[in-house]
Amino acid sequence: MDFTLFQQLFVNGIITGTRYGALGVGFGLILGVTGRFHFAYSTTYVVTAYAAILAAEQGVPLVLALIIGLAVGAILGMLIEGIIYRPLQTSAPTLALLAIFISSLGIVIAGQNLIRLYAGSRSKILDTGFTVKGLSLGENTFTSLDVVMVISLWAVILGVWALIRFSEPGRMINAVRVNPEMARVVGVDSGRIYLAVFGIGSVVAGSVAILSAMKYAALPDMGQQPTFLAFVVAFLAGIGSGPLRTALTGLAVGMIESLSGLWLSSQWAPLVVFSLLFIYVAVKPFSLGTSFPARARRLLPLGAR
């Protein structure tokens, strides 16, 4: 084994796994609390990046442009829940699940086309105005932006964890996640919690999107692969798991994907992630973190629970 290559792939795995972990935290929070398979997570991801880029192109200071992008993404996520998903809830959980999933696909398709019409199909980079420097640790190389990405995303992850663990809104979110009926009995407004969760999840996804637009580029369809990865990480961690467990699962997935480069070509990396999901489902097909009846009840009309 080439130990130098192993070290470099290990460093790459930390960077990649941090992104995967953050994506899983946002997606898992939404799915675990609301029971909605929010495939339009892809749309909020893309819109956040483009909103920040367009604001920066208009001369808005970078920090304010980032805040604008995250705010736009959060508002879009809450609008999708309040205006599109919630009216589709019916007394038949299976029909509601199907209707919400189909509507989310429609949002993704419409969102991509609207972005192409407004911003074009060419890639856009979020210009930070800072020079990205190459760094090294021994024989391992990375960039200053990689360091910023890892620190920033772990700050976001820990922020979500602290919010859920120690704040009053976090306790209400946990109450709805664990027992929606009891939460309603004690006066917790599930509708407001759903909106809050969609907003938080969208901010987490948007943070990854903005940093990715800084390092790589933004494209109208850039959210599809991150959404798939977010689902894989949330699923492997267990639907309804806490942010730290989900983030560490994402870190592990990123490490495994990166270290597979010791034996496989990089073009096979996505297959490694898919294989992890397939093996998990084959070995433990019903371990979803919450029972199906509990998830199904979340699809009932809010006033009928």
Structural features, described:
The chain is mainly alpha-helical and 305 residues long. The protein has one domain (3-125, 135-304): ABC transporter involved in vitamin B12 uptake, BtuC, CATH 1.10.3470. It is 71% helix and 3% strand. The chain contains 12 helices and 2 strands; from the N terminus they run H-H-H-H-E-E-H-H-H-H-H-H-H-H. The chain has helices at residues 3-34, 41-57, 62-85, 93-119, 144-166, 168-178, 180-185, 190-215, 224-237, 243-259, 269-283, 292-297, and strands at residues 134-137, 140-143. The protein has a two-stranded antiparallel ribbon. Strand 1 (134-137) and strand 2 (140-143) form a beta hairpin. Helix 2 runs antiparallel to helix 3, helix 2 crosses helix 8 and helix 10 crosses helix 11. The protein is globular. 42% of the residues are buried. Mean pLDDT is 87; it is low at 286-293.
Strand content: under 5%
Separation, N- and C-terminal Cα atoms: 58 Å
Radius of gyration: 19 Å
Number of E-state strands = 2
List SSEs in N-to-C order.
HHHHEEHHHHHHHH
